[in-house]
Amino acid sequence: MLRSRLWEPSGIGRSPGVLVIVGVATLLVYGLLRVLWPAVGSPAGTAMALLGLIAVLTWGREIRGSGPLWLLLLSVAVQVLSWVLGYFHHPEWVSSNPEVDRLAKLFIFIAVAWWLGGSTRNTMLVWGLAVLGYLVASFVAGGLDEWREGLEGVRTGFGIRNKQHGSMLFGVALLGLVIFARRIMTHDARCIPWRCVAWVLALGICVVGIAIGQTRAVWLALAVSLPVAVLIVLLWARSRGMGQRMLRPILGGVGVGLVLVVLGGVFFGGTLSERLETESGVVVEVLQGDLQNVPYSSVGIRIHTWVAAGEWIAERPLVGWGGEGRSLVIDHTAWLPDNIKERFGHLHNFFLEVWVAYGVLGLGVIAALALWIGRGTWLAWRAGVMPNDMALFGAAFFVYWMIVNQFESYNSFWTGVYMHNLIVGGLVTHIWRWQLESGRRVFAWPTRRSP
């Protein structure tokens, strides 16, 4: 009964029963406790990843030749190549080993996807536990005092690494709560009162958390990704002649969004406007092309370090400087002030960090992974294997993730790795199920001709 109602058996591959129990248990613990109780959640994630990779390679005969496994191997090769070439070019600046985990950790989703077993129910359970764990953690890690200070206008990070990472997690949670609202609040097309109350409470916490977290990149990412989601729904409804039927729920959602914006303006208007206006002078300097006179403010620091990164990229654009590339930019760019070198060790832009470290080859691996997931999501959705709301969430999350990682290196830190792997794992598990059910691949070259 528990197995059938709570956790569905795998539809993408079978592995020994004991291994499945341990793998699923560690996945559930990882999803719930990675933020809330890192001392338990982190080792659970490590065990889940190792056992999952072993299981895929041993029992995943039909999927171990798929794109993610080859891209994982390619990511390791690119990192080793960059390290070897760096050893001969600048041995004093390379680490003692290739540090292949820098990119490889972004492929933990392979294990997540395996244990999810192609199941939408399993995926929603793990994602739901992740949201629950983080909402509780935001009160436990930082404490109620931090929430109180945030409501008084002090920028807060909820005790999660730094002030940007907490806001990023709230942004992902809000995106999921909005897109999966109907799934969360209803059962058999009927609203469940306690679910509605829980949804409103969780949404309210996320909105307030995003406001007092005062992370402009998160505001921008949500301001783009949510309208993109609405546009996708409108285009989908129009293509199926369902415009009138979808108009009411869409208008309802937009209305709720406007109410939240108005309430945010009423309660946090001063804080929000001050945060937005703080860097207006920097933006003007950038638009005028006067980068040398950009002050070393929050945005200014990013601009200067990005310019410095560009100088290093120009010297080794293809293979980069190795895993320590981002630190080299900060520590060995002569014109960067000493106080910046002491305070920062990364570039606040994940894609620039990959480019500096592993060159165009490293960026190519990331781009190929995104392309495979994007096309696979499309194909799985068209075949009816991936639900509408999950495909919509995947598209909106991609937009959100691309934007926030332009202003902070989330995928270089555990918070981003955790979020990336849980969500990508949920998408990939459906893509694998589609592959097995259809007998097709996401990309197949050369195209097979019918006899």
Automatic annotation (TrEMBL):
Keyword entries, A-Z: Ligase, Membrane, Transmembrane, Transmembrane helix
Pfam families recorded: Wzy_C (PF04932)
Residue stretches making up the O-antigen ligase-related domain: 202-365
UniProt cross-references to InterPro entries, sorted A to Z: O-antigen_ligase-rel_domated, WaaL-like
One CC-aspect GO term: membrane
Entry's transmembrane regions: 12-33, 39-57, 69-88, 100-117, 124-144, 164-180, 192-212, 218-237, 249-268, 355-373, 385-403, 415-432
Residue ranges the record marks as coiled coil: none
Location(s), subcellular: Membrane
Its membrane topology: Multi-pass membrane protein
One function term, GO molecular function aspect: ligase activity
Highest taxon listed in the record's lineage: Bacteria
Full protein name: O-antigen ligase
Protein's organism: Chromohalobacter marismortui
